[in-house]
Design brief:
Length: 1362
């Protein structure tokens, strides 16, 4: 970028520094006039709020408005020979409309148009309206009022300091969530004057939605709160939703600093804070949503070469939450579903070679700056962002499924080569708590470096992406040397200091970079560096994470310094420093690699980490912008005093790096909430008056900002007890008087003193000592067990001179025994080579063989048992790899039953459970659990706490030996890994399992892979007897004359074979062959012979070599029924295959018996076979709504002759449901009716849902059949027919409803059309609407905000009597 004279730059810097001094004054005096160098400057113009647009715009005779200067610049910017300077004198430049800049305002010739502060003055471009004429309205409560005619705002500022919209803190009392809102004990809410203006604000996982109240009424002594129904339905079932507070009622106006705007009386009310004089205060309400829009006309005509330097931008609002009756957010305060961005004070689009440098963005009601499409080569450097309701910076448009956004074909659309450097960002997300300080979406070549971010409610830096895109433009992203501290302290969780979501465009050789960052005091879960779903190609190195202040999150969650979520891959973490070793991995990818962690629980950093810390944050040239800000106010959270004690509150502050801040010029006020308990004087001296609890509110005004601190004061409180606990797997475990651990165990202990008044004392109030540090140590609460022996841990807390101790005995026992390595071993090679003899309890589970390997996956409630033989006293030996991301993958020994799981009352077994950090050992006898190693709520452990898992990390292959050996004194349970005995436990209980039993696996959260051994062990040469392949022909057993029916041909190879040909025979007098289609993408099926009654098929393609022991669907064959018959068989005569030696193997013939019936008089038969492929809207009475989405089409599936209706949707950004409707009978069919259809859910779609409504002619719903993760029917209530465990994707199901409109009852049957052909029924129930009188029309629906891909076929509606 072109540089100008040093004196000009110095003047701009001085002007920018002045922004920090106090509140923006209404009339700023001119400062010293800078000496302007002519070199590099074509022209200079001046603007002053005391000027006149009739002036020539000189220093002596300045313009009055920005728009006038803009107009003059346009006359001289065509062929620039130097920069054009527009100097803004100090003062307020109030805008009533958005200031628009476009390509006509650009620089030229490589020079820029620069809008800059004059000298050391402070120009502020703002969109506020001053509120004057304040009078005392309620003397008792110190509430003032002023006229607010026509005012529309959501914010109010007093002397530049944000006031709080009147709120009812603490949430509702004894509230119960309902389908319409809440019922609570707060009966007084029913008397609110303006209940429909109230907003209910919530918090939860990564969101903080708000919903307008519709009404509040008194019902049975309670308040019934009805919320905006258009929004409540999408909020009420959100994860971890918590009603936080109610906002915006005069009756809530009870705290100093709160305000309320009464729209009906056009009056605004305010309760002043200490130190505020309403006679002289400057009260400003933001009214303009967008201060400035900078937008080129298109990618071909961008705006370019404009800079803003040393200017303040302030007082914008954002009214959409008011206008829409609430705001339902996703992460980063995006609008749910559509991912719409909140409005920003500054909006930039189609802009290049621009800059914001050393500006001040504050007092904003939405986002600070939005960079949208086509923004390239933009520098945001050295700015200060603070007091913003939403995010500071949003860079990029958002979409999960629109390629034109996540990977545009026109590179000019891409957010490219933009730098966000040396910015000072704090106090953002003030209202919209899911806001992130800096959010970027699909950037290319972005650099986010040397920023300091603190006091933010959610994530610090967020990369928003897509889990659906194959690749995005997120390439060459660099997040380096930032200092992020004190975040996520408002109860919003599931975020991180640095967060990424979705696919990038990185590669192994060119990953995106996260390095050199210093992260300190993140206060909530899940991780400081958070790689969320599908994140890929990130290199995370040389970062420092300090979580000592919060060693555990939300009482039970590990303080993870890094997290790789599901479907992440190619994440490299190397050479990072942390106070916690907690790392959470849910990815099954081996390409995620973590190496060279440096863990320092005490924060005693080595010199390399100290260098990273020192370098993080603002560089020296920009550290001046942090001056005047209280980053951390060092005032105690609580005071404990005895009656008549006095203590003076300290007035101390420091930066995030620990440097002191001089508060000599601060004005401080103190207020006691209950002077009968404790008083406070103007110097902050607190005097304890009487026993009890109160609070001191401290107001510190410093350099135009306010820090409000509430200090709890307890007088004569007493320490009752010390509670010691730790969290394991997000469960709180209270530490008893004595515990047994194995060596090498670690637990993050939390010790807290509990007082009579309910105080929780910890941190510096608690000391911990060990009587034997060779056995166990505790450093910053982290317990390490080192060697066998006993150590007493003493926890001591003191209060008001009285100490309380708690002693815990730590017994450390080593359960390893080298003799267990000598037990005879037996290889499981025979079981690994014999997948057909594994009993898998779950249809959705898989047992997948390959050469020398068996992969077993039993999701949900499944398990797999090798049923060919039992095992006795051998060490069962195998190579094992756990592919899970969590859960409890397990080995089962001595199971007495094959078909029963561990909880069965008629089964017994031993179970070794592997978890990422621990190993558990259990015995189940008759359904009763006994814990040997483990920490299970409600169960003691006979051996020790969970064994540390350092021997078999997930995603690594290790040699494992597990066995149960019966001895004279009990059963010895052994686990050896890689030739080392991990543990040996002897079960001496009378319930010990001495009988031989079956070996099995539980792999419910990811597969377990067993591979053969080659160590000369017994059993290594065991091979199962091979079985011949088999075929099947499946489908419905009934056909209708003149309609098509389709059957599925499948084969079970039972070994590795090559498909060649197949033959189908049928009675040509009964059926006519119509078509055949392959059901596999890698296999082609062609008809090579079609003689009367015989069809010969030939297979080709890359997938003809098949193997495995599960049925493989090969083809769909369609036949047209010609003649009625009670029985006719279609025969799959055989499938021919060849083995590896070219020997031909032919399957036995299998047949499908068919009944062929004539259509029933008055029946409806919709096969879709006569329609043209493509959109069905308008075809033969089908109505699709909305009409423009094209989600309902006719497809040639399962064959060209047997077509289906295909409903699909790949985007959740449209929130409307998509409905395809047809009235099949205008009069309706009454009496007894049978309705059936076929449906298939396609695989590969996330969170799908489709349903079918059957209605009568007046629209009443008879039944709704829903297919998502289950298949269920809604009649008089919901009935789940096919559960998640049994529902299969790409499986055709026939759904049959028997309807009785005389009795208003219905029953439903669901049958698999392939596979095992299982059937589920609902039984006879009342219809959904018992007033439904007939069946007239059917609706096929794709639900709003859900994706989906569904095939519907062969609807039949037949009267069966009355």
């Amino acid at each position: 970028m072109k540089m100008r004279g040093k004196q000009v730059i110095a003047g701009v810097m001085a002007a920018w520094m002045a922004l920090f001094i106090g509140v923006f004054p209404p009339n700023a005096a001119y400062g010293e006039e800078p000496e302007i160098m002519e070199s590099g400057v074509q022209a200079a113009y001046y603007v002053s709020n005391e000027g006149n647009d009739a002036n020539p715009g000189t220093e002596a005779l300045p313009f009055a408005t920005l728009q006038k200067a803009q107009q003059v610049v346009r006359d001289v910017n065509d062929e620039m020979t130097g920069d054009i300077m527009v100097y803004l004198r100090g003062g307020r430049y109030s805008q009533t409309t958005t200031w628009l800049l476009n390509e006509s305002d650009s620089g030229s010739g490589g020079h820029s148009v620069i809008y800059a502060a004059y000298g050391n003055e402070k120009p502020v471009i703002e969109g506020g309206r001053d509120i004057t004429g304040w009078t005392l309205y309620d003397e008792d409560n110190d509430i003032y009022a002023a006229s607010a005619v026509g005012l529309e705002t959501r914010q109010l500022y007093i002397n530049g300091i944000r006031a709080t919209r009147a709120r009812m803190e603490g949430g509702l009392t004894n509230s119960v969530k309902t389908s319409t809102g809440y019922v609570s004990d707060d009966l007084w809410l029913a008397d609110l004057q303006r209940p429909s203006e109230v907003e209910a604000v919530f918090k939860g996982a990564w969101t903080s939605p708000r919903v307008r109240v519709q009404s509040i009424t008194a019902q049975s002594g309670k308040a019934a709160i009805t919320l905006n129904s258009a929004l409540w339905s999408s909020v009420m079932n959100r994860s971890h939703l918590e009603q936080w507070y109610l906002e915006n009622a005069y009756e809530f106006l009870n705290e100093a600093g709160e305000w309320y705007l009464d729209d009906q009386s056009e009056t605004i009310y305010y309760k002043p804070r200490p130190g505020e004089n309403m006679g002289s205060a400057v009260v400003t309400a933001p009214v303009l949503e967008n201060l400035i829009t900078i937008a080129g006309g298109s990618v071909s005509s961008p705006v370019h070469h404009i800079r803003f330097e040393g200017i303040g931008f302030a007082y914008s609002t954002w009214m959409q939450p008011t206008d829409e009756g609430g705001w339902i957010d996703e992460q980063n305060n995006y609008k749910v579903g559509t991912l719409e961005l909140p409005k920003a004070a500054i909006t930039v689009q189609y802009a290049q070679n621009m800059a914001f440098e050393r500006n001040d963005f504050s007092r904003m009601g939405g986002t600070g700056v939005n960079l949208l499409a086509g923004v390239q080569n933009y520098l945001i450097q050295g700015n200060r962002f603070y007091d913003i309701s939403g995010s500071a910076i949003n860079a990029g448009q958002t979409s999960k499924k629109t390629a034109a956004i996540y990977n545009p074909t026109d590179e000019r659309e891409i957010l490219k080569n933009n730098d966000i450097l040396n910015n000072y960002i704090h106090e953002i997300g003030v209202e919209y708590k899911s806001s992130t300080a800096v959010t970027v979406a699909f950037p290319m070549d972005i650099d986010i470096s040397h920023n300091e971010i603190f006091n933010v409610p959610y994530s610090g830096i967020s990369f928003f992406g897509s889990v659906y895109a194959p690749v995005t433009t997120t390439v060459n992203a660099k997040v380096q040397d930032n200092f992020i501290h004190h975040l996520m302290g408002d109860g919003i969780f599931d975020g991180g200091a640095i967060y990424a979501f979705g696919v990038t465009g990185g590669t192994t050789l060119n990953p995106n970079i996260i390095s050199g960052n210093y992260i300190k005091n993140q206060m909530n879960r899940y991780s400081t560096i958070y790689m969320d779903q599908s994140s890929d190609y990130w290199k995370i190195e040389n970062n420092v994470v300090d979580l000592r202040t919060t060693p555990i999150w939300d009482d039970i969650y590990d303080t993870n310094w890094a997290f790789t979520n599901i479907n992440t891959h190619d994440i490299v973490l190397d050479n990072n420093y942390s106070t916690t070793s907690a790392f959470w991995n849910k990815s099954s990818s081996d390409s995620n690699v973590k190496t060279n962690d440096h863990i320092h629980p005490d924060g005693n950093w080595p010199i390399e980490a100290q260098a990273i810390i020192a370098n993080a944050g603002l560089q020296s040239a920009y550290q001046d912008i942090a001056q005047g800000t209280i980053e951390i106010l060092n005032v105690p959270d609580a005071l404990n005093l005895a009656s008549e004690d006095t203590v003076t509150l300290p007035l101390q502050a420091e930066t995030g790096h620990g440097a002191s801040i001089n508060l000599a010029s601060a004005q401080t006020y103190y207020v006691s909430e209950d002077p009968s308990i404790a008083t406070v004087n103007g110097s902050g001296m607190v005097t304890a008056v009487d026993s009890g609890h109160t609070a001191i509110v401290m107001y510190v005004y410093y350099m135009g900002s306010l820090v409000r601190k509430v200090i709890d004061v307890y007088v004569d409180d007493e320490l009752d007890d010390i509670e010691v606990y730790y969290a394991l797997e997000n469960v709180k475990h209270i530490v008893p008087a004595s515990m047994t651990f194995a060596p090498g165990s670690t637990r993050q202990l939390v010790a807290r003193g509990i007082t009579r008044e309910g105080q929780i004392l910890g941190g510096t109030d608690m000391s911990i000592s060990s009587s034997n540090t060779s056995v166990a140590t505790v450093v910053y609460g982290l317990l390490h067990t080192l060697a066998p022996g006993t150590a007493e841990l003493t926890f001591t807390s003191s209060l008001n001179g009285v100490s309380v101790n708690k002693v815990v005995e730590m017994i450390v026992v080593d359960f390893s025994d080298e003799n267990s390595l000598e037990v005879p071993a037996y290889s499981l090679n025979g079981a690994i080579r014999d997948p057909r003899n594994w009993y898998s309890k779950l249809t959705s589970g898989t047992i997948t063989p390959s050469e020398g390997i068996l992969d077993i996956d039993t999701p949900g409630s499944g398990y797999a048992i090798y049923e060919d033989r039992t095992f006795g006293d051998e060490l069962l030996s195998m190579n094992m790899k756990i592919n899970a991301t969590g859960g409890w993958p397990s080995i089962v020994l001595r199971s007495q039953k094959v078909e029963k799981d561990f909880a069965a009352t008629d089964n017994s077994l031993y179970m070794i459970c592997f978890k990422p950090n621990i190993i558990e050992l259990h015995r189940f006898s008759g359904g009763v659990r006994t814990v040997f190693f483990g920490e299970i709520s409600g169960f003691g452990s006979l051996g020790a706490a969970s064994y540390p898992n350092t021997s078999i990390p997930f995603h690594e292959t290790h040699f494992v030996q597990a066995g149960a050996v019966t001895e004279s004194n009990g059963v010895r349970i052994i686990l050896n890994v890689d030739g080392v005995n991990v543990f040996t436990y002897v079960d001496t209980s009378p319930d010990r399992i001495t009988e031989d039993g079956y070996f099995g696996l539980y792999a419910r959260s990811g597969s377990m892979t067993l591979s053969e051994t080659n160590l000369g062990l017994p059993g290594e040469d065991v091979w199962p007897i091979a079985e011949e392949p088999s075929a099947s022909l499946t489908g419905v057993a009934k056909a209708i004359t003149n309609l098509n029916t389709t059957l599925t041909g499948a084969v079970v190879p039972n070994s590795t074979l090559n498909l060649t040909v197949a033959e189908i025979t049928y009675d040509p007098n009964i059926f006519e062959f119509k078509a055949v289609s392959s059901l596999r993408d890698d296999i082609a099926v062609s008809v090579t012979g079609a003689v009367y009654g015989t069809v010969q098929l030939t297979f080709s393609g890359t997938g003809t070599t098949i193997n495995g022991y599960n049925a493989i669907d090969l083809f769909a064959a369609t036949f047209k029924a010609k003649t009625v018959t009670p029985s006719s068989e279609i025969l799959l005569s055989g499938i021919s295959l060849t083995d590896m030696n070219e020997n031909v193997v032919v399957t036995d013939s299998v047949g499908k018996q068919m009944v062929v019936s004539a259509p029933v008089a008055g029946g409806i038969y919709e096969s879709f076979d006569t329609y043209s492929t493509g959109n069905i809207s308008g075809a033969s009475g089908y109505v699709v709504s909305p009409t423009n989405l094209g989600y309902s089409t006719i497809q040639n599936y399962p064959t060209d002759a047997d077509k289906s209706m295909y409903l699909y949707k790949t985007s959740t950004t449209d929130t409307a449901s998509t409905t395809t409707t047809k009235i099949y009978s205008t009069a309706g069919i009454a009496g007894k009716v049978k309705a059936s259809y076929q449906v298939m859910k396609e695989s590969g779609v996330t969170n799908p849902q489709s349903f079918v409504n059957f209605r009568d002619k007046s629209g009443k719903v008879i039944a709704t059949v829903i297919l998502d993760s289950t298949l269920r029917v809604k009649l008089n209530q919901d009935y789940t027919l096919v559960s998640t465990a049994y529902l299969q994707e790409n499986m055709w199901y026939q759904v049959t409803l028997e309807l009785d409109f005389d009795a208003h009852t219905a029953s439903v049957k669901v049958q698999e059309m392939a596979g095992a052909g299982r059937t589920w029924t609902s039984g006879l129930q009342s219809m959904q609407n018992v007033l439904a009188a007939n069946i007239s029309r059917v609706e096929y629906v794709l639900w709003s905000t859900r994706t989906g891909a569904y095939y519907y076929n062969n609807l039949v509606i037949e009267p069966i009597g009355s």
